[in-house]
Every structure is written in structure tokens, then in C-alpha cells.
Amino acid sequence: MVLPLSSSDPPHLLKPTRKIISFSRTHSNNSFGRSPSHSCNGLTFVRSKKPLSDLNAWGIGGPCNYFVQVFDQSQLTTAIRYCREYSLRFMIIGKGSNCLFDNMGYDGCVILNWIDFLEKIRSVGYRVGRGYPFNRLGVQSATEGLSGLEFASGIPGTVGGAVALILLR
């Protein structure tokens, strides 16, 4: 599932508190001509056979050829530009609660979205990252007396995944 970038996305986001975790194994035939991982503007693109079964709630799926984690909008933009520059197919995923992957894997780059900030906008709502847990947003808004997302408190996944599902209907 690929989420479109919006021109209305703010240029700044809260700084992430998580660190990038690299999953690397040796791989003798990579397109970078050197080590299995490659850095681009602070992002580490790992060229390994990262199992997609590690990235979804179902625990199924073969390997992907490239893997990168993003924690803010600028990293996401960098990752997408990188994939386009090297003509790599890519997909953006969050928690993987609504993803089923083929056991043959994915011949492209999987971008794992950890953009999970939450900002309260006065008393009228929130601005949240695409990777923010949808059920947590439902509970948070109901706790603070905001209505409309009560149903979300039991739904796994991320805000980005929920929006994508609505847009794809």
C-alpha cells in the first residue's frame, strides 16, 4: 500500500525517540557494489533478505530485497526519492495489521513508517503522524471528550493505514 504525499504536510515534525534498527545479512550480489547496506542522507537502506513475516500481524511472507525505516516526513521523502532514483518498486507499511504478503517475497523496497507523533490542536482535535496507532487515537480522543472516533479504540493498525483504506474504497 503506497500512501500519497500531500503538499499540505507540514515541513516539520516532532523528533523521533526511537533509533533506527538495521537488519543486515551478508549478500554477495547487491546493486550497490559494496556492503549489504547503503546510506543516503542519514537513512540506511538495508539490502538483505528481510522477512516480510516480521513486518505484519499475520506472520507470513517471504523476503524483501530492500528495507528502510523512517521516523519523520523528511526521511520518508528521502526514501521515496531514493527508490525512484534507483528505479526500485516500493511500498510503505505501518504495523502491518492489514497486510498479507506472498511467500515469494517482494522484489523492491519496503519502507517501514514510524512517523507516530501526536499534537493537540487547541481543544478541537489532533494532528497525528501516519504511523500513529489508530486505536490509541480513538482512546485519546474519547478520553478528552472529542467524538467521532470512538469506534477506532478497538481497531489495530495506524492512522495512515486507516486513511488509505478509506481512500481505496
From TrEMBL:
What biological-process GO terms show up in the record?
Answer: cell wall organization
Please report the name of this protein according to its UniProt entry.
Answer: FAD linked oxidase N-terminal domain-containing protein
**What Pfam families does its record include?**
FAD_binding_4
Tell me the domain of life: Eukaryota
Q: Please give the organism.
A: Coffea arabica (Arabian coffee)
An example of a GO molecular function for this protein is:
UDP-N-acetylmuramate dehydrogenase activity
InterPro entries membership: FAD-bd_PCMH-like_sf (IPR036318), FAD-bd_PCMH_sub1 (IPR016167), FAD-bd_PCMH_sub2 (IPR016169), MurB (IPR003170), Oxid_FAD_bind_N (IPR006094)
Annotated Gene Ontology cellular component terms:
cytosol
Please state every residue range assigned to the domain named FAD linked oxidase N-terminal: 66-164
